[in-house]
Amino acid sequence: MNFIFGIIKVVWLGFWLCSATLILFLPVTIAALLSRTGNLAFTLSKIWAWTVLRVTFTRSSIKGKEKIEKDTSYVVISNHQSHFDIPVLVTKLGIQFRWIIKKELLKVPLFGYALYASRNIFIDRSNKEDTIKSIHKGIQRLPKGTSLLFFAEGTRSPDGKIHAFKKGGFVTAIENKMRILPVTVNGSREVLPKGGVVFHSGAIELIIGEPIEASDYTGDTMEDLIQRTRDVVVSNFNS
Q: CB of 43 within 8 A of CB of 70?
């Protein structure tokens, strides 16, 4: 019975993912192509994210939202537990932000250009120097007050723990004198762990930490900034 119920869940979610993607693809693409900022496309993408949460009966909440200042560009540093982190971050943070995306998606006809037009940043993960250059170039294209989100661990946690943070987001914050916004995601792994295909209805919570001034740090003290940020994220984490 559990196996059959699991299959039903997979089919149910797959149906809604495909439906929402097909319905929103054209409006989001047009918005991305016509908008100079990409803000409208990002706003429309919230409909997709909201749909995913609703059809899986996933509740979401946020604490500390008052710490986010309007019209401020942050480097958002978040832990990464599940694919469900994405719709919760999109719908709950309440700010415009862009993603770091692998460059292969640029080759997808129309869709790739729409992502580019929306001011997302494309990187070559196999080349560290090119990655840094691409991020710098992409930041210059960000609309005023738009943030950049990094999953600091680089990938979803395989065991539910918060692993070591990679340097990319911190290099970006220091070199561009951007404030870091620490964000902790709780509960998403219970909804869908890495490697899982069957979702489980539950509650996902975002906790916003106190913003950190990256301009107070240099390349020589970056490890201190990484540790400070990680300590904030971990302190709000319900393991």
A: no
pLDDT in the model for residue 121: 86
Mean pLDDT over all residues of the chain?
Answer: 91
CA–CA distance, 127 with 222 (Å, rounded to integer): 21
Question: Does residue 110 carry a pLDDT above 70?
Answer: no
How is residue 105 written in tokens?
């998606």
Which one is predicted more confidently, 143 or 231? 231
Tokens of 119: 């001011």
CB 80 within 8 A of CB 165: no
CATH architecture, domain 2-235: 3-Layer(aba) Sandwich (3.40)
* Stated pTM of the model: 0.91
Element containing residue 208 per DSSP (H, E):
strand 203-208
For Cα atoms 121, 126, 131, give the angle at the middle one, nearest 5 degrees: 35
